[in-house]
Design a protein that fits this description.
This protein is of the alpha/beta class. The protein is 44% helix and 17% strand. Helix 6 crosses helix 7 and helix 12 crosses helix 13. Bound molecules: nicotinamide-adenine-dinucleotide (NAD).
């Protein structure tokens, strides 16, 4: 497995290798036997499929899809499906491993899964995307199901796509199976609060971090990379918490206003124009410029490998809230930590999404729907508890937040192995 590869002219670090190294280090610190790392370092199952789609012009194109299931020791595997041209096996496996750790940290009975299709959905019509989504489920149906592996939205996938996927699964099984997928539209069993869950969770962790650092959020300045589901909702709730969101970027460009962007107007503009670029009389800016801005909070909410050894030195934020999965390389992390930046690690920061997906799955199993307030109250309880246990681990072991999150996640997976009789004579270092 190459540690580095060049993509779009940029050197990127293989996320599978990064997560393996972090898990190995946690296993060593926790004094776990070698076999535990051998189990956790790779997925239990990975399946690659071909999905032929007839394009609107009559041509047939064969797309590649894949699904990684990391471990089901805590429960059925769970995780999003990404539609992106850069989807690859190592990325999907890494993302499934992060899902296992997230579920363990937040304390929900799921294992880690992740799926993807190598495709640029921007070049497809709605009918073609529907056919692709249904084909993905047809091919993967044998390894999926509400007690087995449960998909959800991720980059470039939406509640509508979850609706098509659910419909295809129901047809294949010949009955209604609402708990097969989460992040689906409300009318077919989705949960109140799911669309907003990840961004809301991100803001809850920022609020917890500010408390620990004795910082007042009101009046702080934030910048956000990525203005899709997670980035835009994070912006909305940061704004509500009194934070000035001064700049955002997306794949096409950026928008900046020193006095704070009008977030509601920006969301409406982005919905119409599919980008934040050109918003009102704001200034356009690149990712490089965004990372250099004078601000208190930086939220990477796009893709992996964005904060690197090359740009981490320019970052001025006091808090980096990793809303995206794997946005910071090990070198980027090292530089930020040396500068004293407080990193809220991805496997804690963005775990609000899987948490409300869990609530959706529970509601589907009960054939009952909670009101939004009830979902939010439960989300807040899970996020603040998860933040507290990671922080307690950091204090107990005198490590940084990322290492603490891995110690907690890996430790809880090891606790499950012990409960299943796979390992003996081992104790979790802190009571949690
Ligand atoms: P999305 O497709 O809704 O949005 C992605 C955003 O990133 C878009 O605004 C896109 O333009 C932007 N982007 C892509 N490449 C970029 C680049 N090079 N520079 C700047 N911006 C770029 O996806 P999302 O669901 O918001 O997911 C974003 C991140 O959050 C991903 O890492 C995803 O895995 C993670 N995440 C999502 C959820 C969820 O519930 N959706 C949960 C946990 C983690």
């Amino acid at each position: 497995m190459p540690a580095k590869e060049v993509r779009d002219g940029k050197e990127i670090t293989n996320p599978y290798l990064i997560v393996q190294q972090l898990i190995e280090r946690a296993c060593q610190t926790l004094e776990l036997q070698e076999g535990v790392f051998d189990i956790l370092k790779k997925p239990k199952r990975i399946m690659k499929v071909s999905i032929p789609v007839r394009r609107d012009n009559g041509d047939v194109v064969n797309y590649t899809g894949m699904r990684a299931q990391h471990t089901d020791i805590l429960g059925p595997t769970k995780g999003g499906v990404r539609f992106h041209p850069n989807v690859n096996e190592d990325e999907v496996i890494a993302l499934s491993m992060w899902m296992s750790l997230k579920a363990a940290i937040v304390g929900i009975p799921f294992g880690g899964g992740k799926g993807g299709i190598i495709v640029n959905p921007e070049e497809m019509s709605e009918r073609e995307i529907e056919e692709l989504s249904r084909g993905f489920i047809r091919e993967l149906e044998p390894i999926m199901g509400p007690e087995r592996d449960i998909p959800a939205p991720d980059v470039n996938t939406s509640p509508q796509i979850m609706g098509w996927m659910l419909d295809e699964f129901d047809r294949l099984r010949g009955r209604n199976v609402p708990g097969f997928i989460t992040g689906k539209p409300l009318i077919i069993g989705g949960s109140e609060g799911r669309i907003e869950a990840t961004g809301r969770g991100v803001v809850m962790t920022i609020q917890e971090a500010a408390k620990r650092l004795d910082l007042e959020l009101t009046g702080m300045k934030a910048v956000i990379q990525g203005f899709g589901n997670v980035g835009s909702i994070t912006a909305k709730y940061l704004h509500e918490a009194g934070v000035k969101v001064i700049a955002v970027t997306d794949a096409k460009g950026g928008a900046m206003d020193e006095n704070g962007l009008d977030i509601q107007a920006l969301i409406s503009y982005m919905t119409e124009h599919k980008s934040v670029k050109g918003f009102s009389d704001s200034k356009d800016l690149s990712n490089e410029e965004l990372f250099r801005l004078d601000c208190d909070i930086l939220v990477p909410a796009a893709l992996e490998n964005q904060i690197t050894g090359e740009n981490a030195g320019d970052i001025k934020a006091k808090i980096v809230a990793e809303a995206a999965n794997g946005p910071t390389t090990p070198e980027g992390t090292r530089i930020l930590e040396e500068k004293g930046v407080f990193i809220i690690p991805d496997i804690l920061c963005n775990s609000g999404g899987v948490t409300v997906s869990y609530f959706e799955w529970v509601q589907n199993a009960m054939h009952y729907a909670w009101k939004e307030d009830e979902v939010l109250e439960k989300l807040e309880d899970k996020m603040t508890t998860a933040f507290k246990v990671v922080y307690d681990m950091k204090e107990a072991k005198q490590v940084r937040m990322r290492e603490a999150a891995y110690l907690l996640g890996v430790g809880r997976l090891a606790q499950a192995m012990k409960a299943r009789g796979w390992i003996k004579n081992w104790e979790m270092p802190i009571d949690c």
